[in-house]
């Protein structure tokens, strides 16, 4: 049995609250919210899902379920266990939700025989622990032989994941985020993943992730990036190593390049890091847009040589097409820079070829080296982007590290 869970799409802004068309607390989706639901519906169709969709009886959840069902042909079951958490008792005392008859009339894919006790909401305050119990009880009553989707709210989806024991692994509770539990294979799971949607479509209701990222990056850049005069004044032999670049960090990368003026740039993969093109559904258009932006930054750098290594979330053919001015090399390629043999890869275990120095990125999984082991003057050196963006001066063999800004970690996981 596979259980898929998602939060409803973005709702209409608060300016609509009180509109007689919409009962207080039961707002429908915004245009973007419907678009988000359509992305998820297309992804569910891609996965071959045709099972029942159990939806919170709130309008925003049922509308999300209906858009998904438009893609998958699923039957919708209005399902109280996935309803919103009650944090304001007074607010709920004024709330009047749709009747089962109204729900069946409004949403075409709702099962005409579905039963829903009315009222399906409560005025009693609830904690997260209460939610885990409530959603967990509902899940245990489902048919264990059927794959199903649960559509709810931030709290009910999060607590549903907790009830199922889905391991926390990255991701945030975006609108129409994607979680999955597989009863036959506990290692096959998703936790609040937004990878099926374009980065600019990610929201927490009124909060647009890309806008928040831009605010943080603007504040970071406004403080200035300190670059030592020794680095600025060096005319030759400047190597800049970057990797795993999210599009939200591109302005920072561009600023570094403009101020450092490197002679050689090494990019060790995942050029549009928030777009997991190697494992995402229909990701190439968004990925290509990002690569084009990074390619322009690199092309304008004035660097004499640019090396690019495809990462596990890159599309090599796109890199080769858009970076036709650079040398795109396979992982574990050895090149000579300033008389030093350098192995280039994306992951630490991809740089096994005999070389004095190794450049890579991607993370710390499987990493056995540490920066204190580096001997720039005489011995072996390894440069992992997780230890910071590196600038290395040759022939002096001096390294300067720049801490990766939070922009590297903003946006989609």
Written overview of the protein:
There is one protein chain. This protein is of the alpha/beta class and 413 residues long. It is built from eleven helices and 18 strands. The chain is 29% helix and 18% strand. The strands form four sheets. Strands 3-2-4-1-5-6 form a six-stranded mixed β-sheet, sandwiched between helices. A six-stranded mixed β-sheet has the order 12-11-10-9-17-18, with helices on one face. Strands 13-14-15-16 form a four-stranded mixed β-sheet, with no helix packed on it. Mean pLDDT is 91; it is low at 409-413.
Total number of strands: 18
State the major sheet.
6 strands, mixed
C-alpha-based Rg, rounded: 25 Å
What fraction strand?
15-25%
Which percent bin holds the helix content?
A: 25-40%
Overall pLDDT confidence: 91
Poorly predicted regions: 409-413
End-to-end Cα distance, whole Å, is 26 Å
